[in-house]
Amino acid sequence: MPAFARDPGTAAYYEQRAAEYDEWYASLGRFAARPRPGWAAEVDELCRFVHALPPARTLDVACGSGFLTQHLRGYVVAVDQSPAMVALAQRRLPDGVALRGDALDLPFADDSFDRVFTGHFYGHLPPAERAAFLAEARRVARELVVVDTALRPGGTPEQQQERILNDGSRHHVFKRFLTADQLAAEIGGQPVLTGDWFVAAAASR
Protein backbone atom coordinates (compact mmCIF):
# COMPACT_ATOMS: atom_id res chain seq x y z
CA MET A 1 0.00 0.00 0.00
CA PRO A 2 1.54 3.34 -1.00
CA ALA A 3 2.12 6.20 1.41
CA PHE A 4 0.08 9.36 1.03
CA ALA A 5 0.79 11.91 3.74
CA ARG A 6 4.56 11.63 3.32
CA ASP A 7 4.75 10.72 -0.36
CA PRO A 8 6.86 13.29 -2.30
CA GLY A 9 4.77 12.82 -5.43
CA THR A 10 1.54 13.52 -3.55
CA ALA A 11 3.12 16.58 -1.93
CA ALA A 12 4.16 17.90 -5.35
CA TYR A 13 0.67 17.28 -6.73
CA TYR A 14 -1.10 19.28 -4.03
CA GLU A 15 1.45 22.09 -4.21
CA GLN A 16 0.83 22.31 -7.95
CA ARG A 17 -2.94 22.01 -7.51
CA ALA A 18 -3.30 24.73 -4.88
CA ALA A 19 -4.29 27.57 -7.23
CA GLU A 20 -7.09 25.48 -8.76
CA TYR A 21 -8.10 23.46 -5.70
CA ASP A 22 -11.38 25.33 -5.08
CA GLU A 23 -12.58 24.57 -8.61
CA TRP A 24 -13.62 21.15 -7.27
CA TYR A 25 -15.99 22.75 -4.76
CA ALA A 26 -17.22 25.45 -7.16
CA SER A 27 -17.68 23.18 -10.23
CA LEU A 28 -15.31 25.26 -12.35
CA GLY A 29 -12.62 24.33 -14.85
CA ARG A 30 -12.41 20.59 -15.41
CA PHE A 31 -15.32 20.06 -13.00
CA ALA A 32 -17.78 22.34 -14.82
CA ALA A 33 -19.11 19.64 -17.14
CA ARG A 34 -18.99 16.80 -14.62
CA PRO A 35 -22.50 15.49 -13.80
CA ARG A 36 -22.92 15.91 -10.05
CA PRO A 37 -26.64 16.28 -9.27
CA GLY A 38 -27.25 18.23 -6.06
CA TRP A 39 -23.57 19.03 -5.63
CA ALA A 40 -23.82 22.81 -5.16
CA ALA A 41 -26.60 22.52 -2.58
CA GLU A 42 -24.65 19.90 -0.66
CA VAL A 43 -21.47 22.00 -0.67
CA ASP A 44 -23.57 24.77 0.92
CA GLU A 45 -24.93 22.27 3.45
CA LEU A 46 -21.41 21.13 4.28
CA CYS A 47 -20.27 24.71 4.87
CA ARG A 48 -23.25 25.28 7.17
CA PHE A 49 -22.41 22.09 9.05
CA VAL A 50 -18.83 23.25 9.64
CA HIS A 51 -20.00 26.70 10.72
CA ALA A 52 -22.51 25.16 13.14
CA LEU A 53 -19.78 23.35 15.10
CA PRO A 54 -19.51 25.04 18.52
CA PRO A 55 -16.69 27.60 18.75
CA ALA A 56 -13.52 25.95 20.03
CA ARG A 57 -9.75 25.97 19.86
CA THR A 58 -9.57 23.98 16.63
CA LEU A 59 -6.69 22.47 14.71
CA ASP A 60 -7.55 21.88 11.04
CA VAL A 61 -5.23 19.16 9.75
CA ALA A 62 -4.49 19.10 6.01
CA CYS A 63 -6.44 22.32 5.59
CA GLY A 64 -5.81 22.70 1.87
CA SER A 65 -6.86 26.10 0.57
CA GLY A 66 -8.90 26.79 3.70
CA PHE A 67 -12.24 26.44 1.90
CA LEU A 68 -13.80 24.64 4.86
CA THR A 69 -11.41 26.08 7.45
CA GLN A 70 -12.84 29.55 7.01
CA HIS A 71 -16.20 28.36 8.36
CA LEU A 72 -14.81 27.09 11.67
CA ARG A 73 -15.61 29.30 14.67
CA GLY A 74 -13.29 30.03 17.55
CA TYR A 75 -9.51 30.21 17.46
CA VAL A 76 -8.27 28.19 14.49
CA VAL A 77 -4.83 26.86 13.65
CA ALA A 78 -4.54 25.23 10.22
CA VAL A 79 -1.72 22.96 9.06
CA ASP A 80 -0.84 21.60 5.64
CA GLN A 81 2.32 20.23 4.06
CA SER A 82 1.98 22.51 1.00
CA PRO A 83 3.37 26.06 1.27
CA ALA A 84 1.00 27.24 -1.48
CA MET A 85 -2.02 25.79 0.34
CA VAL A 86 -0.88 27.36 3.63
CA ALA A 87 -0.63 30.77 1.95
CA LEU A 88 -4.17 30.45 0.57
CA ALA A 89 -5.57 29.28 3.91
CA GLN A 90 -3.91 32.11 5.82
CA ARG A 91 -5.74 34.68 3.68
CA ARG A 92 -8.99 33.11 4.85
CA LEU A 93 -8.00 33.15 8.53
CA PRO A 94 -7.60 36.81 9.55
CA ASP A 95 -7.91 35.83 13.21
CA GLY A 96 -6.13 32.48 13.01
CA VAL A 97 -2.88 31.08 11.73
CA ALA A 98 -1.90 28.64 8.99
CA LEU A 99 1.35 26.69 9.23
CA ARG A 100 3.28 24.01 7.41
CA GLY A 101 3.09 20.78 9.39
CA ASP A 102 3.22 17.00 9.29
CA ALA A 103 -0.23 15.51 9.88
CA LEU A 104 1.32 12.32 11.24
CA ASP A 105 3.66 14.11 13.66
CA LEU A 106 1.82 17.23 14.75
CA PRO A 107 4.11 19.92 16.21
CA PHE A 108 1.88 20.58 19.22
CA ALA A 109 1.83 19.49 22.85
CA ASP A 110 -0.74 17.07 24.24
CA ASP A 111 -4.21 18.60 24.63
CA SER A 112 -3.25 21.84 22.87
CA PHE A 113 -6.69 22.04 21.26
CA ASP A 114 -10.33 21.31 21.98
CA ARG A 115 -10.96 19.83 18.54
CA VAL A 116 -9.10 18.41 15.56
CA PHE A 117 -10.98 18.93 12.29
CA THR A 118 -9.99 17.48 8.94
CA GLY A 119 -11.70 17.54 5.55
CA HIS A 120 -10.97 15.23 2.62
CA PHE A 121 -7.71 13.97 4.07
CA TYR A 122 -8.59 10.84 6.05
CA GLY A 123 -9.97 9.06 2.98
CA HIS A 124 -6.59 9.31 1.25
CA LEU A 125 -4.68 7.51 4.00
CA PRO A 126 -3.60 3.85 3.81
CA PRO A 127 -4.02 1.81 7.02
CA ALA A 128 -0.73 2.62 8.76
CA GLU A 129 -1.12 6.34 8.11
CA ARG A 130 -4.75 6.27 9.28
CA ALA A 131 -3.62 4.80 12.59
CA ALA A 132 -0.84 7.37 12.95
CA PHE A 133 -3.18 10.26 12.19
CA LEU A 134 -5.84 9.08 14.64
CA ALA A 135 -3.25 8.66 17.38
CA GLU A 136 -1.95 12.18 16.82
CA ALA A 137 -5.45 13.67 16.66
CA ARG A 138 -6.40 12.02 19.97
CA ARG A 139 -3.16 13.21 21.53
CA VAL A 140 -3.61 16.91 20.78
CA ALA A 141 -7.40 17.26 21.26
CA ARG A 142 -10.28 15.55 23.02
CA GLU A 143 -12.62 15.83 20.00
CA LEU A 144 -12.15 14.80 16.37
CA VAL A 145 -14.39 15.74 13.43
CA VAL A 146 -13.69 14.13 10.06
CA VAL A 147 -15.34 15.15 6.79
CA ASP A 148 -14.85 13.03 3.71
CA THR A 149 -16.32 11.89 0.41
CA ALA A 150 -19.40 9.69 0.41
CA LEU A 151 -19.52 6.24 -1.12
CA ARG A 152 -22.21 6.53 -3.78
CA PRO A 153 -24.42 3.63 -4.89
CA GLY A 154 -22.46 1.40 -7.24
CA GLY A 155 -19.24 3.26 -6.50
CA THR A 156 -15.84 1.70 -5.90
CA PRO A 157 -14.89 2.02 -2.22
CA GLU A 158 -11.13 2.18 -2.82
CA GLN A 159 -9.08 3.06 -5.87
CA GLN A 160 -5.95 4.58 -7.32
CA GLN A 161 -7.17 7.69 -9.09
CA GLU A 162 -5.57 9.55 -11.95
CA ARG A 163 -5.87 13.30 -11.38
CA ILE A 164 -5.35 15.72 -14.29
CA LEU A 165 -4.57 19.36 -13.54
CA ASN A 166 -5.39 22.34 -15.75
CA ASP A 167 -1.89 22.26 -17.24
CA GLY A 168 -2.51 18.70 -18.43
CA SER A 169 -0.14 17.07 -15.94
CA ARG A 170 -1.23 13.67 -14.64
CA HIS A 171 -0.92 12.48 -11.06
CA HIS A 172 -2.02 9.40 -9.10
CA VAL A 173 -3.48 9.35 -5.59
CA PHE A 174 -5.00 6.70 -3.35
CA LYS A 175 -8.64 7.45 -2.50
CA ARG A 176 -11.33 5.78 -0.39
CA PHE A 177 -15.05 6.56 -0.37
CA LEU A 178 -16.91 6.01 2.88
CA THR A 179 -20.39 5.76 4.33
CA ALA A 180 -21.06 7.85 7.41
CA ASP A 181 -21.43 4.71 9.52
CA GLN A 182 -18.14 3.28 8.25
CA LEU A 183 -16.31 6.52 8.92
CA ALA A 184 -17.79 6.72 12.42
CA ALA A 185 -16.79 3.13 13.18
CA GLU A 186 -13.23 3.72 12.01
CA ILE A 187 -12.69 6.79 14.19
CA GLY A 188 -14.65 5.37 17.13
CA GLY A 189 -17.45 7.92 17.05
CA GLN A 190 -20.85 8.75 15.62
CA PRO A 191 -22.02 9.89 12.18
CA VAL A 192 -22.92 13.59 12.16
CA LEU A 193 -23.49 14.24 8.45
CA THR A 194 -24.89 11.83 5.88
CA GLY A 195 -25.17 13.15 2.35
CA ASP A 196 -25.04 11.98 -1.23
CA TRP A 197 -21.61 13.57 -1.72
CA PHE A 198 -20.19 14.20 1.76
CA VAL A 199 -20.16 12.41 5.09
CA ALA A 200 -18.83 13.36 8.50
CA ALA A 201 -18.28 11.70 11.85
CA ALA A 202 -17.25 12.96 15.26
CA ALA A 203 -15.49 11.20 18.14
CA SER A 204 -14.48 12.25 21.64
CA ARG A 205 -12.15 10.75 24.22
TrEMBL record:
Q: CDD domains under this entry?
A: AdoMet_MTases
Do the record's keywords include Protease? Answer: no
InterPro entries membership: Methyltransf_11 (IPR013216), SAM-dependent_MTases_sf (IPR029063)
Q: Which domain of life is it from?
A: Bacteria
- Pfam families, per this entry? Methyltransf_11 (PF08241)
Instruction: Give UniProt keywords alphabetically.
Output: Methyltransferase, S-adenosyl-L-methionine, Transferase
- Where does the record place the Methyltransferase type domain? 59-142
The name this protein goes by in its record: Methyltransferase type 11 domain-containing protein
